[in-house]
Amino acid sequence: MNLIKQIEEITDKCISCGFCESVCPTLEPDGYNSVFGARGRVILADFALKESSEGLELGNSFYSCLDCYACVNVCPAGVNAGVVSELMRELVASGNRGTKNPVAEMIKTSIMEYGNPLGLKEESAEWADGIKFDDSSTMLITGQMYQMMPYTRKINKVRKYIDENLTINIASAMIRHISLIKFSRHFYNKQFRDKMNGDLKNIVSMLQKSGVKFNYLGAEEPYPGMFLHELGYAKEFKEYAETVYNLLKEKGVKRIIAIDPHTYDIFKNVYPEVVKGFKIPVVYYTDLLDLEYRKFNGNITVQEPCHIVLHNNNFKAMDILNSVAEIKLPERSGKSTMCCGGPDELLFPDTAKKVSMKRYKDLKAKSDNVITICPLCYNNLAYDENVMDFSEFMGKLMVKK
């Protein structure tokens, strides 16, 4: 089925009831502008397909969708506005509708050229210096998500002082001279980088203490291509994913350990659809932990990651947390959980900030101790020291033997 038919098949089901707007995390932060909500995106997609879209600005509406899939869980017609946004981004990226986003184009160009959205492939492996890994066919794939957070945090801080038109001009210049993106290596929050590196080391330590044998590719580790997929570059993503698969086969990888929900989701659900013959099993690292923990003196609340609970994936992290502490979840939890705003950080940092602050307040109303299980969630919700990544929290409770 071609792309337009796929979109039409979904949009034709919409009864415009507006239930989805009650859970869409981007509608309120964008001033209740309807095109930045789930229903508005479906209506805009339908209009763009049936009417002339010449001169119509489509990109920001669909690019700002967080792909959290909260909408489909309340829609009586089963419409997934997140999937509509994904398909419309593919139309925009292919040049068939609307205007391409220069920042998205810059990210795509960097991934295709350097294998990393910010050209940070070598820097993404520095955290593992001095760690001894096993000669194993099970491979730890970090997805380079923890490693990129200190850079995106610093870059977005700088962007606050830059006019949006200048941001677009800079991105356009980098598309033509993509080597310039490597200057991003100088823009990072050192304290936050140390924190992220510490979390990565905690993950390795917990796995090794659980008796798990695994290897790590270091500077050869491939970025899985999440942004290519999420920004609609279907052709480029397929080409890139095939390259990643060929590398994994060359390295003899028989199993993948993923440590963030986005990497887990893309290898588990997307690669098998676009890469012929991809059958490498993927497991979330928390499912492999076999450790003894002390009880936590207090209660906690948890930011459940969208790419696990709303994308119909599963992991045992919540079971582990429940075994050590009383969990007080916010009203929006489980299948109605609210996104942290993380996926908007590179393209729409202001929207991401507003979404994350709202979610932070919801979580803190339940407990002062907030646990995240995703580096994007941690990056967006870490407004105080009582917000902790799962690896840090459980690392502190791990019984030393």
From TrEMBL:
Residue ranges the record marks as coiled coil: none
Cellular component, GO annotation: plasma membrane
Signal peptide: none
Every 4Fe-4S ferredoxin-type domain range: 5-32, 54-86
Organism domain of life: Archaea
Pfam families tied to this protein: CCG, Fer4_8
GO MF entry, a single one: iron-sulfur cluster binding
InterPro entries (UniProt xref): 4Fe4S_Fe-S-bd, 4Fe4S_Fe_S_CS, Cys_rich_dom, HdrC_iron-sulfur_subunit, Helical_ferredxn
Family statement: Belongs to the HdrC family.
Protein name stated in the entry: 4Fe-4S ferredoxin-type domain-containing protein
